[in-house]
Amino acid sequence: MVEKGWFRKNIKGIVFFALLILLCSVSLLLNQSQQSKQLATAQDYPLMRENIYKGKIEDTKPVMANYQVMDPKTVKVILARIYLDGEVSEEIVEETIISMEDFWAEYAEWDLIDQDEAQVVFQQRVDDISPLLKINGYFGISEEGTLNIYEGKPSEDKVIQSFFQINMKKLKSHQQRELEDGIPVQSRDRYEEVLKIFKKYAKHEM
């Protein structure tokens, strides 16, 4: 009777004590579980890096982009300009190429004709007459009656460009004298004007 009375009297304390022991046990188990996971993560870390390509984990280390950087290279660049009168001028320059993209961009308005390890050849058509014609070009006529452009006076007979045969009988006397003496080309407008004037006297267009 005494034990039952004591138990009833102290039942709240017994229950509280039992709950306290249970909570401590659960807390201890949770701590041990967390430590085990951390230990497993630390131990498995080397294996994780080995398994990158097996899809288990991604390496977080930065990876440098695999860009191919070329060493500077010097090449000879030939720039060929073709003018309305058929004259071709060439300019030769040396280019040190650091970036191929920049190199091609620099010559985007040129046509690539040829290239090798040592040189690159570009060509461009110029909508104008050549500097040679502007400085020392003359319209004239040959003994056969062909309209030509000469380097220097027609008497020097250095033909640069030939056009068509002229019907000499239809020419006015002053026109014939002008062609024999040489008509300076000077500009593109003058070039086109003279051709237009004498084209109507042409026998056959070349």
Description:
The protein has 206 residues and is of the alpha+beta class. 40% of the residues lie in helices and 25% in strands. The chain is built from 6 helices and 8 strands; from the N terminus they run ααββαββαβββαβα. The longest helix is centred in the first third of the chain and has 40 residues, at 11-50. The N and C termini lie far apart (143 Å). 10% of the residues are buried. Residues 38-69 have low confidence and may be disordered.
What is this structure's SSE topology?
Layout: H1 2-9, H2 11-50, E1 73-82, E2 88-97, H3 100-106, E3 111-115, E4 119-125, H4 131-136, E5 137-141, E6 146-151, E7 159-165, H5 173-181, E8 183-184, H6 188-199
Parallel strand pairs: 1-4
Antiparallel strand pairs: 1-2, 3-4, 5-6, 5-8, 6-7
Number of strands: 8
Give me the strand/helix succession.
HHEEHEEHEEEHEH
User: Using only CA atoms, what is the Rg?
Assistant: 48 Å
The DSSP helix count reads 6
Report helical residue fraction.
Answer: 25-40%
Major pleated sheet: 4 strands, mixed
Give a concise summary.
This protein has 206 residues and is an alpha+beta fold.
Quick tags:
206 residues; 4-stranded antiparallel sheet; rod-shaped; single chain; 25% strand; 6 helices
